Amino acid sequence: MKRIGKITAWVCLAALLFAGMKNEYARLLPASSYGMQAAVRKGKVSHLFIGSSMFRQGLSIDVLEEELEGNVYILSYNGNQPAFMAMELNYMLEEGLEIENLYVDLYPYTAAALPWISDTKILLDTDLAFKWEAWKLMDTQSNGKFSDFYELFVTANNEQLLTYPLNNRLVSAQFRNGGNVLRPAGQTREHLYSLEMLGGRDGLQPAQLEGYQKLLGLAQEHGIRVWFLETPKYERMYRDEDYLELYEACVRALEEMPGESRMVLAEELDFDTSDPACFQDLIHLSAKGREVYTRMLCERGLLHP
């Protein structure tokens, strides 16, 4: 029995050490072409786009690099929310990254969500202090459970770390400077009209609005110019009362916030939101859609000071 107890103790100690090392030092592994560490190691970024899958699927890195002066980086995580975007920006600035122009994802559903990390890849890019702050926000705002804490600090990303050389090569093949180089096809009108709508939410969350305000504050403190970009959604979304209610509330909230910024809304462009070939689903652009949208932004000078 004593031997079993000793073995159990050693296993627990090894697991604890692995978790501690992972949470603090995984960020020091060779960076791929995706995520915060790859951005930080550039030292300076002329145009930083920070957002959710709306940016990963909605912006063409090819067009941006062709049209904009200086270097470009797209930082996107699935479900990335304003509260965490602010933490990400602060982390990168503290790590020494210099930014000239910042473009922030304006997606109302993330502003209406309770704070939560959907994409645990963000944890591979950050230190223990960042993770602890993220957990405190999730715990206080979203009633985190012990199982959530355990996943965040112990089990998240273990498979990526154990297969890191292969996983890093696969990720790097899919991105360049954070931009998605895969070319997803568009859909048919019949398919897009068969999809369920995303439903209602309980209004904008104070923690997310505070995240937008923190982004503006950090930008002002560091002399960074700010744009809020709403990537196009399929026509059905713009006729959906739930989406429009959140969309209008989000735009009003940003307009009322102190701090200098510009807003570029999809409705201000001539983008054809009824063209199914431009969409993968109701909210994500196809390869064709992101190229058309990104070129519109650049050629009309909407991303220039």
Distance between the termini: 71 Å
Largest sheet: 5 strands, parallel
Number of helices: 15
Task: List the strand order in the largest sheet.
Answer: 2-1-3-6-7
Number of strands: 7
Shape designation: globular
Query: Which structural class do you get from the secondary structure elements?
Result: alpha/beta
- Elements, N to C (H/E): HHEHHEHEHHHHHHEEHHEHEH
Strand portion: 5-15%
The unreliable regions are 9-16
Q: Roughly how much helix do the residues carry, as a percent range? A: 40-55%
Residue-averaged pLDDT, rounded? 90
- CA gyration radius, whole angstroms: 20 Å
Structure commentary:
51% of the residues lie in helices and 11% in strands. It is built from 15 helices and seven strands. It has helices at residues 2-25, 36-40, 53-58, 61-67, 82-94, 108-111, 121-124, 128-142, 146-155, 158-162, 164-174, 189-194, 206-222, 241-256, 287-299, and strands at 44-51, 72-76, 98-105, 175-176, 179-180, 225-229, 262-264. A hairpin with a 2-residue loop joins strand 4 and strand 5 (179-180).
Which helices and strands appear, and what pairs or packs with what?
Blueprint: H1 2-25, H2 36-40, E1 44-51, H3 53-58, H4 61-67, E2 72-76, H5 82-94, E3 98-105, H6 108-111, H7 121-124, H8 128-142, H9 146-155, H10 158-162, H11 164-174, E4 175-176, E5 179-180, H12 189-194, H13 206-222, E6 225-229, H14 241-256, E7 262-264, H15 287-299
Parallel strand pairs: 1-2, 1-3, 3-6, 6-7
Antiparallel strand pairs: 4-5
Helix pairs in contact: 4-15, 5-13
